[in-house]
Sequence to fold (216 residues):
Amino acid sequence: MERRLILNRWQTPDGTVLTSYHTHDYVEHTDKNGEYYFIDGGNDYVRMSVNNEPMKDLCVYSDAPFSEIRSVLCRGTFDGNKRRIWIPLCNMSNPHLENCITYYARSFSEDGCTNRYMVYYMIELLLRWYSNEYIQERVYTQSDTEPRKEKSELVREFKHYTLETGIVDTLVEFSEKIDAGNHTDEENVIMLVQHILDLWCEKDENIKEIAKRIFG
Fold:
């Protein structure tokens, strides 16, 4: 599987952390050592300054454990004051997460699914189903940009459970086909999303209504 950038983050010598969240997100800093530092490119590419005293690499890639990915994979949204903020996957509300999944399940181009992170949205939804956790919809605040304490033990338990049921194998296959540019067709993706939503429908009537509305 292709190693894909999940978080473009670097630390300058004086301890300042620079994070580029999207393609043209140019982030800069003049360090205490007098040197000028910058990064750019979001998760599409890494463009950065060349310095005498280099930055520390804090980037996260797709081969990291899911317990780490869910704490750094961010989606842009707005807080109550309409300021742009970035919410990590582990803090996204369930309605927000469900809307992303159902939207991208039908969003295809000639190259396949237009969102390369959809597989992580689905795994997060399954993890919450497994742990019986539901994050209510709310107006996000700055505090939501900080990831919650990781549940690494829960993630390990969840992995064993989903391996037994075959769900993880299906998601891994889905992810590999995205990386290879040889995506499954829209019908197969919708069937996979439907299966995940069906699991949730057993626990939450709101999701059952979403499933009815989206899939008929």
